[in-house]
């Protein structure tokens, strides 16, 4: 079974967005109830935003950790700036019911994310959001099946978003 798709990673019995192993980092745990923001090294009350509160959810990712820094944002911006970068380059953003903006940054893994894995993971969140099926992201078995089918996608596959749509349709979203 594949353990990751860009920033989305299987960690124990759950899926997380971001690196849960960094000593001073941030990740988002996808639970059956909703999204739990986890800050490593910080003691705080558990806070979960339930899936049904989200009207829209979007994933952003950078290929390398340095791209998610302020300096990385400047470098990418001066070079053409077509990629997500800067401090919000690694983030999950959303709109909560009724019209409340929500955004959380996560810590990039030390590994480089391939452009295909980034596109597929971002599209997975977008299409699941469009289908009003965000709760499926909190189902570890369902996400295991989706990632197992998406992760082997070759780097130069045209229209990767179509592949996400086909797999979501196949798995009943």
How many beta strands in the DSSP annotation? Answer: 9
The proportion of residues forming helix, as a percent range, comes to 25-40%
For the biggest sheet, the summary is: 6 strands, antiparallel
Strand order of the largest sheet: 1-2-3-4-5-6
Distance between the termini: 21 Å
Regions with little confidence, pLDDT below 50 for 5+ residues? none
Number of helices, counting only DSSP H or I runs of 4 residues or more = 4
SSE order, as H and E?
EEEEEEEHEEHHH
* Structural class estimated from helices and strands: alpha+beta
SS strand fraction? 15-25%
Short description:
By secondary structure, the protein is an alpha+beta fold. The chain contains 4 helices and 9 strands, in the order βββββββαββααα. The chain has helices spanning about 70-80, 115-130, 140-150, 160-170, and strands spanning about 5, 10, 15, 25-30, 35-40, 50, 55-60, 90-95, 100-105.
Detailed description of the structure:
The chain is an alpha+beta fold and 173 residues long. Helices cover 27% and strands 25% of the residues. The protein starts with a strand and ends with a helix.
Secondary structure blueprint with pairings:
Layout: E1 4-5, E2 8-11, E3 14-17, E4 26-30, E5 34-39, E6 48-50, E7 54-60, H1 70-78, E8 91-96, E9 100-105, H2 115-130, H3 140-150, H4 160-170
Antiparallel strand pairs: 1-2, 2-3, 3-4, 4-5, 5-6, 7-8, 8-9
Helix pairs in contact: 2-4
């Amino acid at each position: 079974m594949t353990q990751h798709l860009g920033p989305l990673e299987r960690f124990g019995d759950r899926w997380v967005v971001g690196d849960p192993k960094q000593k001073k980092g941030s990740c988002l745990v996808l639970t059956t109830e909703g999204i739990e923001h986890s800050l490593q090294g910080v003691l705080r009350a558990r806070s979960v935003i339930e899936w049904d509160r989200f009207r829209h959810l979007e994933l952003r990712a950078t290929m390398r950790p340095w791209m998610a820094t302020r300096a990385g944002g400047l470098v990418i911006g001066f070079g053409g700036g077509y990629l997500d970068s800067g401090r919000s380059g690694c983030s999950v953003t959303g709109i909560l019911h009724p019209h409340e903006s929500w955004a959380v940054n996560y810590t990039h893994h030390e590994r480089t994310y391939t452009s295909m894995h980034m596109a597929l993971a971002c599209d997975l969140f977008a299409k699941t959001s469009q289908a009003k099926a965000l709760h499926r992201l909190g189902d570890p078995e369902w996400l295991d099946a989706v990632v197992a089918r998406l992760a082997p996608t070759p780097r130069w596959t045209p229209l990767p978003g179509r592949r996400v749509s086909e797999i979501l349709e196949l798995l009943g979203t």
